[in-house]
Write a sequence for this structure.
């Protein structure tokens, strides 16, 4: 075991848990994007038959939870914990979406880093023999997020080119003690990084230094180089944040550009979908990971992936009070096989 | 190990971590209450020299974190993780209060159950050999909470007798692999319970069934009876919720009234402080536990305590949309000695 001693931020798991199943459900815009064939379901409209966007987001989470179990051939009583959170105030998408699950629940808040945060905690709890099966999941919703974080949609506010588009979607995984992979082998837990950026329309620039900090720490703790991975995947830095992240890592002596992508860049069609700097929101990295990445790993087209979800830990209140945007990134190392 | 198998919600820890230190800082009203001698510091006014209540709450968290380390004779680089959350939208009290800590950070959201949630995760991570030292903490602030959840303070709104008073305070513990106790021996993680109560001014009634569910599950999983404990302590059910909890458990065959108290009932003087149904907020159970309970355990006046923090998982948005109040309770069993 690598252990957490000597100031290391990375834990090497002794008994790497398997990702037994993964599922995701997304909204109509995401369903028109380049990854559409990888989503388990595409919702026709943002309300999905509910009375409010918040209820629709809870339904996304509830139905995704059911799909994760179904694809893993499990029922709720097989699951020891669900670890979940979202972007809404007081995490109501998760709290209401999972209230009928009947499973012991840990609510987490890591902004858009939530998918990797929940997988980090879930993997360590299984590795430590505290659970056999854990569902880790998250969601976001374009309309509920715009309403809460920015402006009423009805205003039709113009968005600067650096702005990102919150993904409507929920995604998650079932981690299990038993399974045939892919496996979570290392967990690198980020520190809060704040470089003083205050532009809430340029989250990518705020979050990139946190991603760099965690990726560098992962390499230094493990002794790995970028060649250890087929793919290094950040959560939702978007086009600008991705460039910053790549440049900063190259300056540090870790060039990753030949094996680096970002879920926010991947989820929308750059030419046709007018998503500005790319996708964002917890649901972005969750649905790209649970859809495209997981399926490509199972098929054998990807073998070793470093999944680094990134979160901007601000709120409208902190922005109104002139605060900068603290950010965080959590990394999990995932391998198709342990041999 | 009791294990999570067979549908059990309780984990018995193999290597129970020690509560190495505990600290809490509270506001002026809490500092006039019956537990005033147990707090590490009492802030003279709710702003504490900051420009906003939110910044004051972040400062409460930052200074409490420093006190926890100081009392435990540790520095930040000794700590592997900090697990923290609060009630503010996007958990900004924790995110901004701990951004300079330089410690790997897991943000959690369990409403007022956060203190027990963070201790549950922290205890299992140490038990699983993923960390040596973890700080688990939370905060709440009367003014930032009223502003966010209810009405502007300047309105002087009248409060019904069932309303509770959000505690201004931060509290937390340092859990360590090594130490001389008290020890965290069992973790019982709650499910979300929703009995359909919709009155946001009667949180005690909404949360009591969740507390009952978790306490019953703890007894059934472990085979313990209430006599196992000197004290069963709920987080912030307040006067009404406490009565409901006690009555419900008695009907289930587990009478606890001779060894039962609630942090929300304990923190204010019933006759003199006009706190209606009692204290509430994450900072309530955190400061009562880190102050009074911890010190009385160290002195030997309390030996075995079941700490059950309770959270109401609603938001103003969910209440405005006519939703009920889902609730959760997490329990940790704490023993002064393992012999």
């Amino acid at each position: 075991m690598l252990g957490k001693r000597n100031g290391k931020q990375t834990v090497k798991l002794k008994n790497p848990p398997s990702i037994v199943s993964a599922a995701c459900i997304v909204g109509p815009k995401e369903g028109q994007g380049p990854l559409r064939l990888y989503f388990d379901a595409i919702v026709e409209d943002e309300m999905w038959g509910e009375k409010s966007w918040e209820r629709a987001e809870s339904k996304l989470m509830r139905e995704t939870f059911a799909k994760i179990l179904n694809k893993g051939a499990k029922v709720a009583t097989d699951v020891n914990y669900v670890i979940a959170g979202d972007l809404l105030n007081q995490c109501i998408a998760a709290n209401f979406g999972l209230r009928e699950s009947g499973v012991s629940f840990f609510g987490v808040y890591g902004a858009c880093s939530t998918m990797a945060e929940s997988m980090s905690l879930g993997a360590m709890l299984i590795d430590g023999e505290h659970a056999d099966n854990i569902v880790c999941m998250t969601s976001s919703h374009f309309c509920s997020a715009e309403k809460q974080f920015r402006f009423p949609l009805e205003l039709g506010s113009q968005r600067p080119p650096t702005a990102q588009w919150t993904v409507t979607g929920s995604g998650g995984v079932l981690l299990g003690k038993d399974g045939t992979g892919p496996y979570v082998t290392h967990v690198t837990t980020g520190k809060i990084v704040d470089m003083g950026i205050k532009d809430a329309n340029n989250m990518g620039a705020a979050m990139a230094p946190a991603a760099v900090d965690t990726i560098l720490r992962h390499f230094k703790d493990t002794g790995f180089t970028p060649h250890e991975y087929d793919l290094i995947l950040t959560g939702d830095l978007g086009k600008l944040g991705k460039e910053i992240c790549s440049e900063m890592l190259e300056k540090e002596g870790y060039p990753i550009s030949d094996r680096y992508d970002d879920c926010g860049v991947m989820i929308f069609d750059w030419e046709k979908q007018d998503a500005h700097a790319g996708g964002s929101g917890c649901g972005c990295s969750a649905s790209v990971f649970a859809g495209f990445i997981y399926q490509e790993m199972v098929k054998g087209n990807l073998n070793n992936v470093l999944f680094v979800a990134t979160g901007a830990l601000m709120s409208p209140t902190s922005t109104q009070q002139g605060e900068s945007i603290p950010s965080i990134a959590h990394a999990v190392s995932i391998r198709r096989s342990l041999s």
